[in-house]
Write a structure and sequence with these properties.
The complex is a heterodimer of chains A (281) and B (172).
Chain A: H1 4-26, H2 35-64, H3 71-111, E1 116-126, E2 131-135, E3 148-151, E4 154-160, E5 168-172, E6 179-184, E7 190-195, E8 202-205, E9 218-221, E10 233-241, E11 249-254, E12 263-267, H4 272-280
Antiparallel strand pairs in A: 1-2, 1-12, 2-5, 3-4, 3-12, 4-5, 6-7, 6-9, 7-8, 8-11, 9-10, 10-11
Helix pairs in contact in A: 1-2
Chain B: H1 2-19, E1 24-25, E2 28-29, H2 33-45, H3 47-65, H4 71-89, H5 95-121, H6 129-171
Antiparallel strand pairs in B: 1-2
The chains are: A alpha+beta (281), B mainly alpha (172).
Chain lengths: 281, 172
C-alpha cells in the first residue's frame, strides 16, 4: 500500500507528464517536426540504442565466451596443422632448392664438352686425414677409378678405387694426399695444387719465383696429370709471396664449396694412364 | 460534494473570467479567477484536489483562450499541488496568510506560464512585473473575499434572518 503522499506525488507526475505530452503534440520544433514526434523518436531511438547495446553485449558475450567451448581443441588441432604445414613448407623449400641446384648442374653438364654423369653425394668423410665423399654412381654406370669429378663451382676431386656397382668414393681436391696439375689463368704459371690442412685448404706448389702470380688469379687445371680436364677452375689465389727457395708460396681458395656439396658430375673420360695401359695390352 | 464544489468553483470562475476578459492591465488580465478558485480548492480540500482542479481549470482556460492547450494547465497544476501541500503543512486559516499565499501563487503561476510559453513558443521570457503584481494583489483580495463569503456568508445570513424575525415581533 502506497503512502498517501507518495500517491499524490505520483498523481502529480502523471498529470504533469500527460500535459507535457499534450503540449508537445501541439508544438513544432525548429526543424518543423512536432515536438511530440521528435521526443518520441528520440526516446524510442534511445530505447532502440539501449536494446541494441544489450543485444550486442549478449551476442558478443555468447560469441566470445559461450560459443568458444570447443576452441581449445580446435586451437590444438590448428597448431598441429601449422606445424605440419611448416614442415611441408620446409620440404618444399628444400625441393625447390634442390631443383635449382640440379638445374645449375644440368646447365653445367650441357656446357661441358665431354661426356659426364650426374651423381648425388650420399655420404661424406671430412676428417683431417682422408677427405672423401661417396656418390651414388658406380661401375654399373660406367664410373672408373681416377675419373675426374667436377661441379658448377669447379673441380671436386677424383674417383678412387675400388668402385662399387652403384657407389664410388671421391677423393676431394682438398685432401692432403690429393694433387692436380694447375696453371694460373692470367700469368700462365704452371705448378701443382695439393691439399693442405689449413685455411684455405689448397696450396699451389712448384711455381717459380720468377713467375707473376697475384692474389685473385684464377687457378685452373692444366690437364698435365691426365685426370682433371684442362681449363676447369680449381680455385683462386688468396695469398702469393716469394718463397725462400726456388718456388713461390701460394695459397688457393677452392672454387667449390665443399661444405654444401650435394650434386656432382663424373667426367666419363678414362684417365690417360688407363688409356695407355689398354693400348699397351 | 467535493467534486461538485470543484465543478461549481472552476465552472463559475471560468464563466466569470470569460466575461471579465476585457479587463486587462498592461496586456495582462487584472484578475485570474480560475487561479483563485484553484488556490481556494487546494487550501480547502488538499493537494490532490488542488492539482486536479488546477489541471481541469487550466486546460479549460487554455481551450477557451485558444492558445497552446496544456501550458496554463501545467502552471495551475503546479500551483494547485504546491498550495495544497503547503496548506497541509501550515495553518492558513486566517486572512493574511491566505492573502500571502494567493499573491505568491499568482507570481508562481505567471512565472511558470511565461516560462513555458517562452519554452514552447521559442520567444524570450517576458514577465511584466508591475502587471503581475497588480494581478497578484487583485487575486489576493478576490480570494480573501471569496474565503470570507464562503466561510462567514451563511452565518451572517442566518444572523440577519434571526434579527429580522426579532424586529418583526417587536413591531407587531
Amino acid at each position: 500500500m502506497l503512502d498517501i503522499r507518495k500517491r499524490t506525488g505520483y498523481l502529480f507526475l502523471t498529470v504533469m507528464m500527460a500535459q507535457v505530452i499534450l503540449v508537445s503534440a501541439q508544438v513544432q520544433s525548429k526543424s518543423g517536426v512536432r515536438v511530440l514526434q521528435a521526443v518520441a523518436l528520440e526516446v524510442f531511438s534511445r530505447v532502440e540504442f539501449a536494446s541494441s547495446a544489450v543485444l550486442n553485449v549478449t551476442r558478443h558475450g555468447w560469441g566470445d565466451y559461450v560459443a568458444l567451448r570447443g576452441v581449445r581443441a580446435q586451437n590444438e588441432e590448428l597448431r598441429r596443422r601449422v606445424a605440419d604445414l611448416e614442415v611441408r613448407l620446409q620440404q618444399e623449400h628444400a625441393l625447390a632448392d634442390r631443383s635449382q641446384r640440379l638445374q645449375q648442374l644440368m646447365d653445367f653438364k650441357s656446357q661441358a664438352a665431354m661426356p659426364t654423369l650426374a651423381a648425388e653425394v650420399i655420404a661424406g668423410n671430412q676428417d683431417r686425414v682422408l677427405r672423401t665423399v661417396t656418390i651414388d654412381r658406380g661401375s654399373a654406370d660406367g664410373v672408373l677409378a681416377d675419373m675426374a669429378v667436377i661441379a658448377p663451382g669447379g673441380i671436386v676431386g677424383r674417383v678412387i678405387g675400388p668402385v662399387a656397382r652403384h657407389a664410388a668414393r671421391v677423393q676431394l681436391i682438398t685432401d692432403r694426399n690429393a694433387a692436380a696439375g694447375a696453371i694460373t689463368e692470367r700469368g700462365r704459371a704452371g705448378g701443382m695444387v695439393v691439399g693442405a690442412e689449413a685455411n684455405p685448404p689448397l696450396r699451389m706448389e712448384m711455381v717459380s719465383n720468377l713467375t707473376d702470380v697475384k692474389a685473385g688469379d684464377n687457378v685452373v687445371a692444366s690437364g698435365a696429370d691426365g685426370i682433371f680436364p684442362k681449363g676447369y677452375l680449381i680455385g683462386r689465389v688468396e695469398h702469393a709471396e716469394r718463397g725462400s727457395g726456388l718456388y713461390r708460396s701460394i695459397t688457393v681458395r677452392p672454387g667449390v664449396d665443399f661444405a654444401s656439396l650435394e650434386e656432382v658430375l663424373v667426367v666419363l673420360l678414362p684417365p690417360r694412364s688407363a688409356t695407355r695401359d689398354e693400348a699397351a695390352k | 460534494m467535493k467534486t461538485a464544489a470543484v465543478v461549481i468553483a472552476i465552472g463559475g470562475a471560468l464563466a466569470l473570467q470569460t466575461m471579465l476578459s476585457g479587463l486587462m492591465i498592461g496586456g495582462t488580465i487584472a484578475v485570474n479567477l480560475v487561479l483563485v478558485a484553484v488556490v481556494y480548492l487546494a487550501l480547502a480540500y488538499g493537494a490532490v484536489t488542488g492539482l486536479l482542479a488546477g489541471t481541469i481549470g487550466g486546460l479549460a482556460q487554455d481551450a477557451v483562450a485558444g492558445g497552446i492547450v496544456g501550458v496554463g494547465g501545467m502552471s495551475k497544476t503546479v500551483v494547485g499541488f504546491l498550495v495544497g501541500v503547503l496548506g497541509a503543512q501550515f495553518n492558513l486559516s486566517s486572512t493574511v496568510p491566505r492573502l500571502v499565499m494567493l499573491v505568491a501563487a499568482t507570481f508562481v503561476h505567471e512565472v511558470m506560464f511565461e516560462a513555458l510559453h517562452a519554452l514552447v513558443g521559442g520567444r524570450p521570457f517576458g514577465l511584466q512585473y508591475s502587471a503581475t503584481l497588480v494581478q497578484a494583489l487583485v487575486n489576493g483580495l478576490v480570494g480573501v473575499s471569496a474565503f470570507l463569503i464562503v466561510e462567514r456568508g451563511p452565518e451572517a445570513m442566518q444572523r440577519r434572518r434571526l434579527q429580522r424575525g426579532t424586529f418583526g415581533k417587536k413591531r407587531f
